[in-house]
Protein 1
Amino acid sequence: MSSPASPARVWAIVPAAGRGARFGATAGTPKQYVAFAGRSVLEWSLRALLAEPRIAGLVVAIAAGDERWPALAAALDDPRLDAAIGGAERQDSVESGLAHLAGRAAPQDWVLVHDAARPCLSRADLAALIDVLGDQPPGALLAAPVVDTVKRERDGVVADTVDRTALWRALTPQVFRYAELAAALADARASGVLVTDEAQAMERLGVRARLVKGSPLNVKITRVEDLELATGIMKAMGVASMRIGQGFDVHTFGDGDHVVLGGVRIPYTRGVVAHSDGDVVIHALCDAVLGALGQGDIGQHFPDTDPRYRGADSRVFLREVAARMRAAGMTLVNADVTVLAEAPRIARHRAAMAANLGADLGVCADVINIKATTTERMGFVGRGEGLAASAAVLLDAAPAGAA
Ligand code: MG
């Protein structure tokens, strides 16, 4: 039992069990797991909270059987992070989060509830909200003044203009005392009232939460076009960043009459020793893109011990890697590939190679530069024992429509 004198701690609950809203090219993906600018909506929202050291613990209320959660939890790797099984409604999920905190949170501790679908919460707004708790208000929430003129409609036409001077849009986080929030939600439930935010449950009991002016950029993702907006906001906040990656691959020459580079079959007096078609250009490029995504390397995704990949067309690998890039909400800005070989000469195949690579990656061929060099007869390349390729790529957040 904590003594009354001990300072109230701040806990966070994120209801993320919603299964209803699904959109985007990844149809069937719950809204909170749709990605933009390299991360899912939920991951951005959780990172915004975890960046605040005054949050003692964070419970994410997930759907039962959420198969995406374990990987996200592992990626976030924060000991303050915990999951509970939420419910169909936001209120169910918040209550399950509160139940999960029972025993850890004291009655006077603060519980901050944040929408899973508000990924653009700034550190400054979160800090300002927590700062206000030092004044011991009955509760507080981020909110933005209504700036548009608001009309009331009746039968499809304007009935009147609503005085907007006292109107605010409720954002999240919203923060209340643990025991009071639990009691307010229980009371709403007992009365058969389904609240749309925590402040509403508190209002019913006469609690007057403080409005803390927050940025209107703290948008809620409800439609596919909101992802476009959020991408721009993240860039403007300097949060969403470009990603670079590099890759390198080598294959030994062996028996054969051709090599495959950039998906182009080039006649030669030798072939390459490889499990797949031994396309060093595509293998290096796949590794560069996977590296930029932080998703390991080509060997992890397409192991050369897998019989499915014997003699495989490496363009299949590149298309799969491109799908991973799109699923992360990223697109290729440009790629620069260097082939290291004494022979064969590739100059007249460069345009065809770039066309293949561009098609597989879903970008114009002219953002893919392919060049070649010998190694002045030095080393394994110089002795004609094999050939190699290196690739560098730059990725950026994709427009939402492209995902
Ligand atoms: Mg290889």
Protein 2
Amino acid sequence: MKKNNKIVYVAFADDILHKGHFNILKKASSLGKVTVGLLTDKAIATYRTLPYKDYKQRELAIKNIKYVNNVIEQDTLDYSKNLKSIKPHFVVHGDDWKKGIQKNTRKNVIKILKSWGGKLIEIPYEKNISHLKVKEKIIETGTTPDIRKSKLKRLIKAKKIVRVLESHSALSGLIIENLKIINKSKTFLEFDCMWSSSLTDSTLRGKPDNQSVDISSRIDGLTDILEVTTKPVIFDSDNGGRIEHIKYTVKSLERSGVSAIAIEDKKGLKKNSLFKNQKGVSQDSIKDFCNKIKAAKNSRISDDFMIIARIESLILGKSVADALSRANAYSKAGADAILIHSKKKSPTEIFQFTRQWVKSKNFKPIVAVPSTYSKTTEKELIKNGVKIVIYANHLLRASYPSMVETAKTILLNQRSSPIEKKITPIKEILTLIN
Ligand code: SPV
Ligand code: MG
């Protein structure tokens, strides 16, 4: 067979292209006709953070490279399906995957290619440019509000469950942005998104969680977080305030690049939902709350911005049936997702709700906040139909005992050296913020 009739396969995930990528594609094209298997968001989410650009934008860029003849979807990190379907003579890849999370993928590619005499060609990876360095640059440069905003919908499509952690400060935002773990079973783990919590925003300012901290101060605080991160944000707006003001809140949030607003169906002076005593707190009527949802929906500029309707029926001792009838109504009014809250230690009532809600013709993705039923695993949440899990207050709660212990230790010892081993070295702090 002439060189040009040979089939060459290259899998691709990145969006910020550099010399290393072009070296691979050039080599591939010198061997024959190049088909690029472009990894979908779903495939990428299994081993690293979603790229900056979505599939369609990445496809457009790759299709227009002169070394590429054809682009097809690769929907898993594993190459098997595409390789078996196009039976390439060659697969070309950088040699950087010999180690790390793609090690087994590589072994499998070699094994499959062997069954029809295909070969893996590896190119020495461009050492000066790596994906991580590119990612660092992106954080340094920042992201755009539109790109950040669209990420939540992409994550909902790409992931089994979207993992959200509370951020109340730029520093806590940086932890969420940077923490990446590969566990013992070689699964890539990270938080996908941040929760801007009314409870922790209030606690940070030493005020009760009853809207004493106004929306403007909360958005100011959020700006600090947005300045040093690229991950999406869900904003807890309590009950969204007066219907007349909702459009300004939605517009401010959307302009900042927030992906979703959560609005709860309570009225009057609010109390935190986890307070045992909910006396004096009442739930909005279905009709009035649907009008609020419609007002929020009509104020958003792009479809990427999501309205999350939060149902407080179970918090207020009402039935699962009440919650379900509200979910149906809120969904029809335009809610893009339903947050069902509970303050029970067990997830029983939440799962009674979710198991019925997934069957509804008005179904929208489910958000859960397992603060009290914290023994429940993500696996159980996924099994019961939950799409977004919010760990709503944990970073703030973690910092408090540590600050108290440090203050006490200095006071008791009248010097600071006894606490030094337990707190972050100054050098590490300086590296973090430089
Ligand atoms: C928050 O984090 O502010 C919430 C969740 O609204 S909860 O505290 O459970 O009400
Ligand atoms: Mg709240």
